[in-house]
């Protein structure tokens, strides 16, 4: 890997009439996220301008979106997607769930920091104002980034959690959200699998 060579390839792909999209794909799709960050820095150092801005000016449509997404760190991309999910009328709750409920604690912290850096806004505050009820409670708990991340499974705890969830949900009218919140947002993914098996 040579960031200098790759930055020069991107520059030549955007120089003159027409853009060599094949060359852009060749460089960016064969590099890790970390390497793409180095290419961006090298491009800026060599040409005194942002590689993203140059590519924005030369590309369009879905290809532009894909290339710009490749230039983001994963946490930045996810922060942008979360912002998009909450911007304007309506909230894409499925996207909030997909991103926030599948990330580990470190990833959640990185996403929150990227969100603050990119939009000068607090992710938790935006989630609170764009969601309501049980969904708001569980997403805010997930954003605390305090999920147990051990791989060990406690079978007794799984059976107790399954029983608590049954009593809180199907077992009676209404639901006791706290039981769901604690189990779904705090337990490790391994522990959750054991709980779901015990619930069946």
Topology diagram in text:
Layout: H1 3-14, H2 21-28, H3 33-47, H4 51-58, H5 61-71, H6 74-86, H7 93-100, H8 105-119, H9 123-130, H10 133-143, H11 155-168, H12 177-186, H13 189-199
Helix pairs in contact: 1-2, 1-3, 4-5, 6-7, 6-8, 9-10, 10-12, 11-12, 11-13
Question: Could you explain the architecture of this structure?
Answer:
The chain has 200 residues and is mainly alpha-helical. It folds into three domains: 3-71, Orthogonal Bundle (Annexin V, domain 1), CATH 1.10.220; 74-132, Annexin V, domain 1, CATH 1.10.220.10; 155-199, Annexin V, domain 1 (Orthogonal Bundle). The chain is 72% helix and 0% strand. The chain has 13 helices and no strands.
Average the pLDDT over all residues and give the rounded result.
Answer: 87
Q: Give the number of domains.
A: 3
CATH class bucket of the largest domain: Mainly Alpha
The count of strands amounts to 0
What's the order of the H and E elements? HHHHHHHHHHHHH
Low-confidence runs (pLDDT<50, min 5 residues)?
none
Main beta sheet strand tally, sense and closure: none
Shape: elongated
Helix content: over 70%
Question: Structural class given helices, strands, pairing?
Answer: mainly alpha
Protein name: Annexin
InterPro entries: Annexin, Annexin_repeat, Annexin_repeat_CS, Annexin_sf
Pfam families: Annexin (PF00191)
Family: Belongs to the annexin family.
